Structure formats: structure tokens, C-alpha cells
Amino acid sequence: MTEQLSEISNQAIALPADDRLILVTMLWESLAKDGLGDDVETIALARQRAKELDTGQVIGISHEEVMASLEKVLNEANLPS
After folding, report:
1. Which of 32, 46, 50, 76 would disulfide-bridge 38, Cβ 3.0–4.6 Å?
2. Which secondary structure element, helix H or strand E, spans residue 37, and what is its range?
3. Which has the closest alpha carbon to 27: 41, 12, 42?
4. Is the CB of residue 20 less than 8 Å from the CB of residue 26?
5. Pseudo-torsion of CA 38, 39, 40, 45, nearest 10°?
6. Domain range annotation of the chain
7. Burial class (CB in 10 A: 0-12, 13-18, 19+), 39
8. Which residues 6+ apart lie within 8 Å of 81 measured at CB?
9. How far is residue 46's CA from residue 73's CA, in Å, rounded to a whole number?
10. Which distant-in-sequence residues (6+ apart) come within 8 Å of 59 by Cβ?
């Protein structure tokens, strides 16, 4: 990480949550302009899933649960984990 990026990151992290959300949205949109992160369907699905989590329609699972489930599937498929 460059010194400039480190400085910007520290400043960004110190922003209030609302400003960080605006910043991350701006950064995401800038990636789309560069041809990255522009899969509209994927973004729409991510927004829908976030809304479902926020409203309690679905309950998320922990990283540990995801990894345990993945390991189980890999073991059952006799693939190296």
C-alpha cells in the first residue's frame, strides 16, 4: 500500500458511517466505469439480499458456519480441503 493510499484509508475510516457509505458507493461506481464491478444483476441481487438481512426476512450465518459447511461438502466430494 502506498503512503498516499494509507493516508486516504485512515481518513476514510475516520468518517461517519453515512459518509463512508457514500464513499464506498462512489468507489464502486468508479470501478464500473473501468469495466469492473458492472454486473448489474449481481449488484441488484446483493442489494436485495442486504435488504432481506436488514429487515429480518432471512437470518445470516457466520463465517465459521460457512467454512464448516464448505469443508463438509469438500470432504464428501473427496476433494482436498
Report:
1. 32
2. none
3. 12
4. no
5. -130
6. 3-76
7. exposed
8. 71, 74, 75
9. 24
10. 53
